[in-house]
Amino acid sequence: MISNHLSLVEQHRQDAYSISERTAQFLAAGGTVAQLPSPPSNPVPPKRSAKIDPETILKRRKPPITAAERKALRKLAEAL
Questions:
Q1: Distance (Å, rounded) from C-alpha 80 to C-alpha 74?
Q2: What pTM, to 2 d.p., does this model score?
Q3: pLDDT digits (tens, 9 = 90+) for 13-48
Q4: What residues have CB less than 8 Å from 33, skipping those under 6 apart?
């Protein structure tokens, strides 16, 4: 089966040649290519802070009204 991305390959061929030429020039000028170890695939996330910001606690959502409070509000509304 022919690739649907053949035009994409042809589009980037000039870039590949350019990189190849510049690499050859670099090596001809005495440059060296270093093989380094690859970075870990899943780096360990940073540790969580134990500090709790007091303003964050105030911004938290209030708990919903309980059934008993709802009944009490209905009775107050009916009394009016």
A1: 10
A2: 0.40
A3: 889 999 999 999 999 999 999 999 988 788 888 898
A4: 27
